[in-house]
Amino acid sequence: MPGSSGDEAIAVLRERILSIPADLKALFAVVDDADLPDELRVKAAAAIFYNLNPSNLIPAKEGMLGYADDALAIRCAMFAVAEAAPEQAKRHAEHAPELWGDLDRDIAAFSGLLGDLWEPFREAWLRVGMMEWRGKKAADAVADEEVSAWLYAAVDEAFALRDLEEAAVVREVRRDPLLAKLQGRLGARKRA
To answer: In angstroms, rounded to a whole number, what is the distance separating the alpha carbons of residues 30 and 81?
Structure first.
């Protein structure tokens, strides 16, 4: 991959990291959308759980780089909705065009950036997102309004403590460290 397209993909990823709080709201709208198949709603909830779960691929202790995989998981879930239910995704895009409008661009950039790691990442984030966290599962958030409310509160609590500082995102989110972290984690998961 030429350096410039990798640089463009990192710039897109940085944008998406900074928009994580808004993107999570878009996912909650999907989770709450009874017109969507439960399978898609559960994927959206899984991306939210992935963002909260400290067992995700790049832990938050890695600084801003720790949010890169979170942003990727969010976009993967949104893309799954757009692919499987384009009319419903279009309806969601009308309410949040800044979040849904560049989805194809984002997925193309991220798949190009990750290369051979793209498919293993897509499988791994979903597997982690489906794991139980604090006694709850993604499917529970779709099936039970009380769990959905708990998930909203958990996100509010988590993001009250997070500071997504643009200068730190630009400084810390780089192609080589990202690929090295994902290669290490995805390689370790394959061997396990």
So the answer is: 8
* Greatest Cα-to-Cα distance within the chain, rounded to the nearest angstrom: 48
Q: What is the mean pLDDT of the chain?
A: 92
Q: Please report, as a single letter, which amino acid is at residue 188.
A: A
Which residue is associated with the tokens 């006694």?
Answer: 135
What one-character DSSP code corresponds to residue 172?
H
**Long-range contacts of the stretch 132-135 (C-beta < 8 A, 24+):** 133/49, 133/52, 133/53
Q: What is the pLDDT of residues 77-126, one digit of tens each?
A: 999 999 999 999 999 999 999 889 999 999 999 999 999 999 999 999 99
- Residue 169's nearest CA partner among 5, 12, 1, 8 is 12
Question: What is d(CA 126, CA 122) in angstroms, rounded to the nearest whole number?
Answer: 7
Torsion over CA of 113, 107, 111 and 67, rounded to 10 degrees?
60
3-state helix, strand, coil in the chain (%, to 5): 80, 0, 20
The whole-model pTM stands at: 0.92
Q: How far apart are CA 98 and CA 96, in angstroms?
A: 6
Are the C-beta atoms of residues 17 and 178 closer than 8 Å to each other?
no
Name the one residue in this structure whose structure tokens are 């959206």. 44
